Amino acid sequence: MGxxxxxxxxxxxALYRLLVxxxxxxxxxxxxxxxxxxxxxxxxxxxxxxxEGADKIRAFYAxxxxxxxxxxxxxxxxxxxSAQTPDCAQAAGIMSLYRxxxxxxxxxxxxxxxxxxxxxxCMRDDKLDWRFQSHLLRPIFVGADLPVSIVIxxxxx
Length: 157
Prior knowledge:
The protein is α+β, with helices and mostly antiparallel strands. It has a single domain (about 5-155), classed as Roll (Nuclear Transport Factor 2, Chain: A). The protein has 3 helices and 6 strands. It has helices spanning about 5-30, 55-65, 150, and strands at about 40-45, 50, 70-85, 90-100, 115-125, 130-140. Strands 2-1-6-5-4-3 form a 6-stranded mixed sheet. The longest helix is centred in the first third of the chain and has 24 residues, at about 5-30. It starts with 5 loop residues before the first helix and ends in a 6-residue tail after the last helix. The mean pLDDT is about 90.
């Protein structure tokens, strides 16, 4: 594999910023603005659960907030990007989710609630900001404490 050039690094940084900004909103702001990271016709999928369109994604995060007082941390690793066009790129990697009911600090061992591979198709909007066109998580390991994204039925939103 060749050495990354400045354009590759700029794209990597821009898409990494999109992804970590999104998960930070979910972890620290209960996902109140999570739908804004998506294009209006975007798809967010976790396993077999598909949330299609910004309205469904917004509804998912509203329903997620009703599940009570939980603390989550979404961690990204093995992050890779590839440009498709100047305004379209793919990102991929691994997302690990830790969650617990209540407020930190939590004592004792905590297994991840989920470890998933992810793929994201990202496109620039009319302001040239990157947004998700699709954001797909494929669970590889799921703990006994099921993530809300697997529990919520998209058809009931």
